Amino acid sequence: MNRVAAHLIAVLALLSPTTPAAPPKPCEPAGCNREICAEKGEELVSACVVLPEHACYARAKCARQKDGRCGWTPSKALDRCLSENRAQMPVFVPPGLSPAKRD
Predict the structure, then answer these.
(1) pTM of the full predicted structure?
(2) What is the gyration radius of the CA atoms in the chain, in angstroms?
(3) How open is the CA angle 74-79-84, to the nearest 5 degrees?
(4) 99 and 91 in contact (C-beta within 8 Å)?
(5) Domain residues of the chain, as ranges?
(6) Number of neighbours of residue 46 by Cβ within 10 angstroms
(7) Could you read off the pLDDT of 19-36 as tens digits, one per residue?
């Protein structure tokens, strides 16, 4: 490629419009119990099951995290609330079989 052509390509590259990247959408609580932190308008599905720990997210901060994704901002208060209110999933044991005898 000659110098004139290279110069012309460089000038055209400077003059061509560029589309700036769209700013990221804000984060907001979502889900049936607002237990998920997601981008505003993101379509998602959550189980409509009320769990005690879901109340913890009402006082937590939903924001874009260091990795660029939406998430709950870690805090001692959130960690404490979740550990105190985390639901224990029940274990079904058929009648006549004690938990110690399961194989």
Answers:
(1) 0.63
(2) 26
(3) 160
(4) yes
(5) 22-85
(6) 14
(7) 677 788 999 999 988 999
Class of residue 87 by CB neighbours under 10 A (exposed 0-12, middle 13-18, buried 19+): exposed
Q: What HEC string does the chain produce?
A: CCHHHHHHHHHHHHHCCCCCCCCCCCEEEECCCCCEEEECCCCCCCCCCCCHHHHHHHHCCEEECCCCCEEECCCHHHHHHHHHHCCCCCCCCCCCCCHHHCC
Question: Comparing C-alpha atoms, which of 89, 88, 91, 29 is closest to residue 55?
Answer: 29
Round to whole Å and give the CA distance between 6 and 2: 6
pLDDT in tens, 35-72: 999 999 988 888 888 889 999 999 999 999 999 999 99
